[in-house]
Amino acid sequence: xxxxxxxxxxxxxxxxxxxxxxxxxxxxxxxxxxxxxxxxxxxxxxxxxxxxxxxxxxxxxxxxxxxxxxxxxxxxxxxxxxxxxxxxxxxxxxxxxxxxxxxxxxxxxxxxxxxxxxxxxxxxxxxxxxxxxxxxxxxxxxxxxxxxxxxxxxxxxxxxxxxxxxxxxxxxxxxxxxxxxxxxxxxx
Length: 188
Fold this sequence. Notes:
It is a single chain. The protein is α/β, with parallel strands linked by helices. The protein has helices spanning 2-7, 28-38, 55-65, 80-89, 104-112, 124-127, 141-151, 156-167, 173-187; strands spanning 14-19, 43-48, 71-74, 90-95, 116-119, 134-137. A 6-stranded parallel beta sheet has the order 3-2-1-4-5-6, with helices on both faces. Helix 5 (104-112) links the parallel strand 4 (90-95) and strand 5. Helix 2 packs parallel to helix 3 and helix 2 (28-38) packs across helix 7 (141-151). The longest helix is centred in the C-terminal third of the chain and has 15 residues, at 173-187. The protein starts with a helix and ends with a helix. The mean pLDDT is 94.
């Protein structure tokens, strides 16, 4: 509720978050098309990030799809101090990338125990254990739509959020130090 208040959002709405710089390879167009299929009362897609691609192309697509009332657009750079509000207001994050190596957004999700949907490109699937903390799906409209459908079924979001508390330990400083020591011992 505090996060929604800070962001001027309705706390009774269930928010799905797309976060980060908006570039074509990040697949926002895929997510928008999937959202048109998924849309339901009480849900909104919160897009937070600065456009590094044609803003008008995405605004036009939102209009063509008829989903203007389903979208909350915060199209500006999000200051570090405000990141926590976006991840606290959202029930899940979607990274519908078309290509990728990794994404720092996944680590923010772990920090806030916000379940995540990623596409099976680059190394994203290595970071998100499928059906434990989120879903790994095909980088297609249907793939993203199916993952949205599944993540909002029953207690899935609560179950994934709880699993993130354990799973995120593998990204801790102590885990990293242990791996460095292990490599050191192995090379002796």
